Amino acid sequence: MIKPLLPVLREKKRYVAFEVISNRKSSFYEVSKALWSAFSFFLGELELAKAGIIMIANTFNKDVQKGVIRVNNKYVDHVKAALVFVKAIEQQPVIVRSLVVSGVLNKALKRVI
């Protein structure tokens, strides 16, 4: 049986709440595809793996176009910088901006809802 990691050895994570500003409402799939390509472009494959980015699907609110990304605490600034490189989703111009960074998911969700 494998022992669980000690809390000291686990990677620390942060939650980045973001919003998509656009004339058209996009689905989670379209937004995540655009964000992943921006992260890959800005960070590269190795840094992308180290950042441990996870798009949390059930936090994306299609009506207000807001969602939450989980990331390693050392790569928060990299992720926020990569959001600038998202210029279009499905050939529609967009602006993606970060709202808040939190260590607790519920606090980040308060900005999304």
Summarize the structure.
This protein has 113 residues and is an alpha+beta fold. 35% of the residues lie in helices and 32% in strands. β4 (88-89) and β5 (92-93) form a beta hairpin.
Notes on the structure:
By secondary structure, the chain is of the alpha+beta class. It has a single domain (13-112), classed as 2-Layer Sandwich (Alpha-Beta Plaits), CATH 3.30.70.3250. 35% of the residues lie in helices and 32% in strands. It is built from three helices and six strands, in the order βαββαβββα. The protein has helices spanning 28-51, 76-82, 105-112; strands spanning 13-21, 54-61, 66-72, 88-89, 92-93, 95-102. It has a four-stranded antiparallel β-sheet, with helices on both faces. A two-stranded antiparallel sheet has the order 4-5. A hairpin with a 2-residue loop joins β4 (88-89) and β5. The longest helix is centred in the middle third of the chain and has 24 residues, at 28-51. The protein is globular, with a radius of gyration of 15 Å. The N and C termini lie far apart (41 Å). The mean pLDDT is 92.
Task: Describe the SSE topology.
Blueprint: E1 13-21, H1 28-51, E2 54-61, E3 66-72, H2 76-82, E4 88-89, E5 92-93, E6 95-102, H3 105-112
Antiparallel strand pairs: 1-3, 1-6, 2-3, 4-5
Please report which band the strand proportion falls in: under 5%, 5-15%, 15-25%, 25-35%, 35-45% or over 45%: 25-35%
Question: What is the H/E order?
Answer: EHEEHEEEH
CATH topology: Alpha-Beta Plaits
Question: If helices are DSSP runs of H or I spanning 4 or more residues, what is the number of helices?
Answer: 3
Q: Which CATH class is shown?
A: Alpha Beta
Largest sheet: 4 strands, antiparallel
The strand order across the widest sheet is 2-3-1-6
Terminal-residue CA separation: 41 Å
Record field, number of beta strands:
6
Q: What overall form do the CA principal axes indicate?
A: globular
Fourth CATH level, the homologous superfamily = Ribonuclease P, Pop5 subunit
Low-confidence stretches: none
Determine Rg (CA atoms, Å).
Answer: 15 Å
Level of helix content? 25-40%
Q: What is the correct CATH architecture?
A: 2-Layer Sandwich
Label the structural class: alpha+beta
The total tally of domains equals: 1
Question: What's the average pLDDT?
Answer: 92
